[in-house]
C-alpha cells in the first residue's frame, strides 16, 4: 500500500513539473516560426506574455549547412541575443529607424527592412537547439520569428551550370546546322 501511495505521489509530482516545462518546437519546414516575448531580459516565449507561457526553444537536426534567420515584427526597436545549444551566436541588428509602419505579419518584409531588428547565422550539420533572450525592448511584449533554410549544395550549382552549358551547346549546334543547310 505504501508503494502505491509513493508511486501516485511521484506521478503527480512529475505531472506538475511537466506542466511548467519549457516548450520545444521541432523545425521541419523552411517556414517562419513565431515566438513571443515580454520585457527586456525575458526569454522567447511560446505564447503571449499575458497567457503565462513557458520559455520556447526550437530544435532541428541538419544533414548539411543552413541559414538561421531571426527577425523582430510588430513594433520596432527590439533586439535579441540568439543562442545555439546554449552558446551565443550574437545579437540581431539595431533597428535604423523608429518605424510606425504596419507590415502586418510579414516576416520576410521585416527581415528585409532596416527598420526591424534582424540577424542571420550559418549553422553547420548536426543537432541544434535555438533559444533567444530579449536584449532591448522599448515597448515591452512583442512578437518575432525565425526561419531555417538549407544552403544550396555546390553540386546543385555545378549541375545547373552543366545544364545551361548543354543548352547553349545544343542551341549553337542547331544554329550552325541551320546556316549550312541554307548556304
From TrEMBL:
Pfam families: PEP-CTERM. Keywords: Signal. Residues 150-174 form the Ice-binding protein C-terminal domain. Coiled coil: none annotated. It comes from the Bacteria. InterPro entries: Ice-binding_C. Residues 1-21 form the signal peptide. This is PEP-CTERM sorting domain-containing protein. It comes from Rhodocyclus gracilis.
Amino acid at each position: 500500500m505504501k508503494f502505491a501511495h509513493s508511486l501516485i505521489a511521484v506521478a503527480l509530482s512529475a505531472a506538475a513539473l511537466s506542466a511548467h516545462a519549457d516548450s520545444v518546437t521541432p523545425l521541419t519546414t523552411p517556414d517562419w516560426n513565431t515566438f513571443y516575448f515580454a520585457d527586456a531580459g525575458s526569454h522567447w516565449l511560446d505564447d503571449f506574455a499575458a497567457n503565462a507561457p513557458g520559455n520556447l526553444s526550437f530544435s532541428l537536426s541538419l544533414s548539411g549547412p543552413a541559414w538561421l534567420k531571426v527577425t523582430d515584427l510588430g513594433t520596432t526597436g527590439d533586439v535579441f541575443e540568439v543562442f545555439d545549444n546554449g552558446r551565443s551566436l550574437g545579437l540581431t541588428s539595431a533597428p535604423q529607424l523608429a518605424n510606425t509602419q504596419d507590415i502586418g505579419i510579414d516576416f520576410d518584409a521585416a527581415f528585409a527592412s532596416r527598420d526591424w531588428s534582424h540577424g542571420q547565422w550559418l549553422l553547420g550539420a548536426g543537432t541544434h537547439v535555438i533559444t533567444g533572450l530579449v536584449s532591448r525592448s522599448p515597448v515591452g511584449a512583442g512578437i518575432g520569428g525565425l526561419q531555417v533554410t538549407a544552403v544550396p549544395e555546390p553540386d546543385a550549382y555545378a549541375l545547373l551550370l552543366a545544364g545551361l552549358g548543354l543548352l547553349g551547346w545544343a542551341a549553337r549546334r542547331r544554329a550552325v546546322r541551320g546556316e549550312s543547310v541554307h548556304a
